[in-house]
Amino acid sequence: METRNAILRASLHSAALSIQIPQNHSFSTLTKIHSPKWVSLNIRYSFSSRTLLVKSKTQCRNSYAKIKCKGVSDIEEESPKPKLRRKNLAVFVSGGGSNFRSIHEATLNGSVHGDVVVLVTNKQDCGGAEYARDNRIPVIVFPNKKDGQEVFSAEDLVITLRSYKVDFILLAGYLKLIPVELVRAYPKSIFNIHPSLLPAFGGKGYYGMKVHKAVIASGARYSGPTIHYVDEQYDTGRILAQRVVPVLANNTAEELAARVLHEEHQLYVDVAAALCEERITWREDGVPLIQSKENPNEYF
Ligand SMILES: Nc1nc2c(c(=O)[nH]1)N[C@@H](CN(C=O)c1ccc(C(=O)N[C@@H](CCC(=O)O)C(=O)O)cc1)CN2
Ligand SMILES: NCC(=O)N[C@@H]1O[C@H](COP(=O)([O-])[O-])[C@@H](O)[C@H]1O
């Protein structure tokens, strides 16, 4: 097939390649110049609905090289990847919302293939709620009581989140217990970030600076954020991701909090990206794993 022969003019200095391919077909190349004489070339050649991949490592004599495919085995057919639907995210906060802002910014810059469609908070004047209003993200107050009377129930919250077609719920500094109705309505779809290496320093009473003070007082040499699935109790859901932050001998709780928070921001964006790209898988023993984006054969 004529497509199997591509005459290449490799200008090894600028790594510019020109390829003579029949008209009305598209192609893309990936080149790697190993040395003045050797170049690797992957040609992705698409026509109609088929994509062919020609891989070759070729010795270039002077500045021309003729790539010949030895047979069909040189050509792999790439089935077109189904275009992933953008996912809808609900974020829950109670405070400043720096994790929420990191996630929102990542949805805007393309790092996360999703959109924050609603913010939920128990404190309608907190920093996270203010940021949401400034960015035209709807804000829901939950729990919401007036004169001790519940005016917006857990069932109301489930119905409202369904109306926004929420795929994933991300807790980011939310300090209230998520009701069982919501946990059951969104199985394996609610996540929380906690500022210690769970299961250490977690559970009722462990939030905010209380966590970091307990870590410092314990003499622990390492801390760091944990992202876990949310179940019906505080901080007991399956661990999905962690980052390690050394605890320095002279660290105050505030200094440790700042370093852990910095790691949280990147970790939550990485996890949100994996969720929206459907790169979560479950090990046989029930441990959730994240598939590497760079190398799909690797999990962490
Ligand atoms: N069903 C769940 N709900 C929530 C979880 C969870 O894992 N399952 N995680 C928390 C977040 N969190 C730790 O990561 C956490 C938040 C708050 C508390 C706590 O002790 N809160 C106090 C009240 C604090 C306040 O109102 O200011 C309390 O319940 O007495 C512990 C852990 C979010 N929800
Ligand atoms: N147990 C829950 C808990 O302590 N969560 C912690 O609250 C902070 C919220 O900061 P943010 O509002 O700037 O994202 C974060 O450090 C988060 O890990």
From TrEMBL:
Transmembrane segments: none annotated. PROSITE patterns: GART. Residues 87-271 form the Formyl transferase N-terminal domain. The keyword Transferase applies. This is phosphoribosylglycinamide formyltransferase 1. Its EC number is 2.1.2.2. It comes from Rehmannia glutinosa (Chinese foxglove). Keywords: Purine biosynthesis, Transferase. The lineage of its organism: Eukaryota, Viridiplantae, Streptophyta, Embryophyta, Tracheophyta. It is an enzyme of class 2 (transferase). Belongs to the GART family. HAMAP family: PurN (MF_01930). It catalyses: N(1)-(5-phospho-beta-D-ribosyl)glycinamide + (6R)-10-formyltetrahydrofolate = N(2)-formyl-N(1)-(5-phospho-beta-D-ribosyl)glycinamide + (6S)-5,6,7,8-tetrahydrofolate + H(+). Pathway: Purine metabolism; IMP biosynthesis via de novo pathway; N(2)-formyl-N(1)-(5-phospho-D-ribosyl)glycinamide from N(1)-(5-phospho-D-ribosyl)glycinamide (10-formyl THF route): step 1/1. Signal peptide: none annotated.
